[in-house]
Amino acid sequence: MKKELNSFVVFALMLISFSTYAQEETVIGFWEVEIVEVGEENMTPVAKWFKINTDGTYQAGNGWLQNGQGNWNYDAENKMYSAIDYLDVTDEFGGFSVSFANEKMFWERVEDGALVKVTLVPIEKLPMSPADYLEGIWDLVEITENEQSILNDFDKDNKHKLFIRWDRIYINFSPEGKKMTGYWHIHGHRPEITLLPHQEDKVAESWKIEVNDKDLLMIGISDTNRTMVRKYVRRNTF
């Protein structure tokens, strides 16, 4: 009886170990892309995620924006993961070879002769991208040109605000009290925003940004604003 009990315990432990290993070695789950390496270049997209479901479907997106869905397949024998989004361009490079280590998942394949390595980490909720933080009313609190403050000259009456809307429209409240509108575009791989005015006499400008739930820092990177830095704080009213 004791021998049978010991055998049962050993068998149960083996099942538990196998089950734990199998759970760790599955593509199913909620994953964020930690890094994408293409050759020697870092091509990591901003807040990219994949949700790979048990029913053979998946969703993908950047931050709070879902921009892909479809079906996935995993060849366990060859450790190959592939996915099809029927609304997207056909993926001509085929599937990824898959490996696991330290709770991370790794995808690899060759694209146009370059080795692509993707590192994914498990997550529990959608990551936020700079675009998600940008939406709202921003009140200018400092502006510098060539590292010198020009706030009093530029906006002495504190009228300038920037309203960034979810529908990719922005409203620029000028220091003179005028409302100017345009489109805003966020870069897919870098924290950079481009403002595209609707007004024909205004030019498009790009800014490197640092943003969170309270503050927005905009550093000019276009020829027309390269010496400018703007600091904003979030407001809940105009």
Chain-averaged pLDDT: 90
Low-pLDDT windows of residues = 1-24
Helical residues, percent? 10-25%
Q: Helical stretch count?
A: 3
What structural class do you assign from the helix and strand content? mainly beta
Strand order of the largest sheet: 1-3-4-5-6-7-8-9
Radius of gyration: 25 Å
How much of the sequence lies in strands comes to over 45%
Largest sheet: 8 strands, antiparallel, barrel
Q: What is the N-to-C order of secondary-structure elements (H for helix, E for strand)? A: HEEEEEEEEEHEEHEEEEEEE
Beta strands, count:
18
Q: What shape does the CA trace take?
A: elongated
How far apart are the first and last residues' alpha carbons, in Å?
Answer: 79 Å
Per-chain topology:
Layout: H1 2-24, E1 29-38, E2 41-42, E3 48-52, E4 57-62, E5 65-75, E6 80-84, E7 96-101, E8 104-111, E9 114-122, H2 130-134, E10 136-145, E11 148-149, H3 151-154, E12 161-164, E13 169-173, E14 179-186, E15 192-197, E16 205-211, E17 215-220, E18 228-235
Antiparallel strand pairs: 1-2, 1-3, 1-9, 3-4, 4-5, 5-6, 6-7, 7-8, 8-9, 10-11, 10-12, 10-18, 12-13, 13-14, 14-15, 15-16, 16-17, 17-18
Features:
single chain; 238 residues; mainly beta; eight-stranded antiparallel barrel; 18 strands; disordered N terminus
Please give a structural write-up.
The termini are far apart. The protein has 238 residues and is mainly beta. It has helices spanning 2-24, 130-134, 151-154, and strands spanning 29-38, 41-42, 48-52, 57-62, 65-75, 80-84, 96-101, 104-111, 114-122, 136-145, 148-149, 161-164, 169-173, 179-186, 192-197, 205-211, 215-220, 228-235. Strand 14 (179-186) and strand 15 form a beta hairpin. The chain contains three helices and 18 strands. Strands 1-3-4-5-6-7-8-9 form an eight-stranded antiparallel beta barrel. Mean pLDDT is 90; it is low at 1-24. It is 13% helix and 50% strand. It is elongated, with a radius of gyration of 25 Å.
